[in-house]
Please model this.
Amino acid sequence: MPNWIRRNLVVLAGLLTLVYLTLPNVVVLVFSFNRPDGRFNYTWRRFSADAWKDPCGVPDLCGALALSLQLAAWATLGATVLGTMIAFALVRYRFRARGAVNALIFLPMSMPEVVMAASLLTLFLNMGAELGFWTVLIAHVMFCLSFVVVAVKARVTAMDPRLEEAARDLYAGPVQTFLRVTLPIAAPGIAAGALLAFALSFDDFVITNFNAGSAVTFPMFVWGSAQRGTPVQINVVGTAMFAVAVLAVVAGQLLTARRKRAEEHH
Amino acid sequence: MTTATDTPPRAGAAAPAVRRRSARRRLVPYWLLLPGVLWLLVFFALPMVYQASTSVQTGSLEEGFRVTWHFPTYWEALRDYHPQFAKTLLYAGTATLLCLLLGYPLAYLIAFRAGRWRHVLLVLVIAPFFTSFLIRTLAWKTILADGGAVVGALDALHVLDVTGRLGWTEGDRVLATPLAVICGLTYNFLPFMILPLYTSLERIDGRLHEAARDLYASPAATFRKVTLPLSMPGVVSGTLLTFIPASGDYVNAELLGSTDTKMIGNVIQGQFLRVLDYPTAAALSFLLMAVVLVTVTVYIRRAGTEDLV
Model:
């Protein structure tokens, strides 16, 4: 083996893994411009931008997408509020049953999803609850909660308590201290938790599949289409989601970089 | 709550008010915890109880199910579905191992060799998440298609000979074989391996590497004696974060596999949503939970990082 390769073996192996990770996204993008012959969009035929011009051209697709967005928005709101409260309690206060609360937060993250999905379904069946939007929303808030707690906890733990003491020394009331000092510092953690919750809820399939009844979210639409025939529009939606998310990340990075530079100038 | 009347008078006039405020302050954490913890108790813990009770019920859909403490359901479920349990452990275990082998070089590259590209590479690792995982899993149907470039390359490299002998592929097909399922599982959970690995690698003090080199350790020895031991927390949490979800997954087996590659998740899903045999489904779900918990506990004991969980 030439010396050059031996020295960079790790780099080559790492880049190969990166190819493995990104290849499906490339395929999704390329095949959003395909015009397949049959019902399934698995084989390349010829170039066409028809699906991009008419992303809602498939019945029920955009309805499923709207339902998923709506669910993700409410689930994010619920999980972020409840999770942030728990995170503050865990970091800022001493109380009994701390270990039990930590276990209750940790367990949902360390359980195969299908187990949670199945047990939640037995609860709903036993209670005679009607499966649909509300049961899915309840489930999404449940499994997103723990991730919000972890994200917010990390940020609040790293926070300097002296800042709040300083605010109080300067005669800020508890409410004022919280709104003007605590919340702005914790905000990046809360935002990270909320983004994670949104992504988890939007992309969830297993728990939703068990508890949705006849409601169809976007992942469930894709699952169903794997049996009935995969419209090219699925790839259009997937690629568009990817583009929006990447743009958001880049914009966020630029914004923080600019703010940092502005702070340095002051 | 203690009232102001039993405070000793010499504490001064301000004491009752302070006492009342501190009692209220003591209750603050409980009010903060209440809604979230209640949510988890009712929709996470309570369902486990219901599932336990469902697993010992007998009856039928028409007549309804009643708790009869019928424990043989567990034995029958294990007898009927032990091949699927074995496949689950095999596929999820192999996928976890592959994730470690594929993920470690990339995590290492990002932590030590990427320089100013570090953030770009990290975003590239997370970026696939931005597209629905079902769509990305379906993309593997195209990548692994019969007679496609990937299958051709694997055939030319004699990989298919080896996997064929292992029973993981049949002839020159990859799709609808165990290899396709393992490939999908590895792909889907790879970021869960890379991120904890990266976190623990990134924490390693670069001066340790210099010290090892100064003491005439070869790069291989440096890796074995310094880098790898220090990255063990990442290895342990990465393997857990990969193995646990992989063991419950049924999407890859359904989309990329065949009827011969069914995992236990597929059985649970089928029993719950199609066959509607709730006791068996609940028993299987509990067995899966038990198997995962036991595997994870044994693994953590042996890996010796108990403070991780």
Notes: The first helix of chain B runs from residue 15 to 55.
